[in-house]
Specification:
26% strand, alpha+beta, globular, 6-stranded mixed sheet, CNF1/YfiH-like putative cysteine hydrolases
Length: 263
């Protein structure tokens, strides 16, 4: 089953990433201390929630994952194509702006936050190394998935054909209508391939972020891609959804790290 109980919390895990060398979890919104509209495991610090509640929720998430809090690495997510190589945990000062992180250090836990945008988790078992990306429509348009793979190639010598990648819970196309300006931007960026990700339904154009990111990964040579198929807007009892909750909601957290090497 894709859901697992980790400590006191419930998380989604990719079948393909349940491997000895990597640890990951995409936590649901259940099991935290935040009050509505951030109920309850909100780990987003910029959505209006009490910072003390956010800190408690993050600690609960790390405890459930069995990871020390001082291994945390995070970025200020801005819907860009910027990827950072992480060589040490975050130090509590203002985070750098980026929408993807990569590391080959097992003492670092990569964390990103989501509420409809696409979590992309990548593992290179040969190097080994890991990477995580936050792909909204802007990040997808600018190729954040491709930039993630390119950075792992450049920094770690990753072979894209050996990568294992998961596309996590996020908004599905049937819940994601977009305006003509977004559709036109995708046509310009993706060319004829854009027709695969834009569907006209009930007079509205809908964007398939899962398909667009999968296509980008495949263009880079990635063959092992698992899509969760879970729509955040359909299941707000389990996931935060910016669209379905009219922007008044929290952020769920994804954690990714290399398993500690045996002494």
């Amino acid at each position: 089953m894709p859901y697992a109980t980790l400590g006191a919390l419930c998380a989604f895990q990719f079948e393909s990433l349940r491997l000895p060398g990597v640890e990951h979890a995409i936590f649901t919104r259940r099991g935290g201390v935040s009050e509505p509209p951030w109920r309850s495991l909100n780990v987003g610090g910029s959505v209006g929630d009490d910072p003390k509640n956010v800190a408690t929720n993050r600690r609960r998430m790390f405890e459930s994952a069995g990871r020390p809090n001082d291994t945390l690495a995070y970025v200020w997510q801005i819907h860009s194509e910027r990827v950072l190589r992480i060589d040490r945990p975050s130090d509590g000062v203002e985070a750098e702006k980026a929408d993807a992180m990569v590391t080959d250090h097992p003492d670092i836990t990569l964390m990103m936050r989501f509420a409809d945008c696409v979590p992309i988790l990548a593992y290179d078992p040969s190097r080994p190394a890991v990477g995580v990306a936050h792909a909204g429509w802007k990040g997808t348009l600018h190729g954040i998935a491709q930039r993630l793979v390119e950075t792992m190639e450049q920094d770690f010598g990753t072979d894209p054909g050996g990568l294992v990648v998961g596309i996590g819970p996020s908004i599905a196309a049937h819940h994601y209508p977009v305006g003509p300006e977004v559709a036109d931007a995708f046509r310009r960026s993706f060319g004829t391939a854009a027709s695969q990700f834009l569907d006209l339904a009930n007079g509205e154009l809908h964007l398939d972020l899962w398909g667009a990111n999968r296509w980008q990964l495949e263009q880079m040579g990635v063959a092992h891609i698992e899509i969760s198929g879970i729509c955040t807007a359909c299941r707000t009892e389990d996931w935060f959804s910016h669209r379905a909750e009219s922007g008044k909601t929290g952020r769920f957290g994804a954690l990714l790290n290399l398993a500690a090497r045996a002494p």
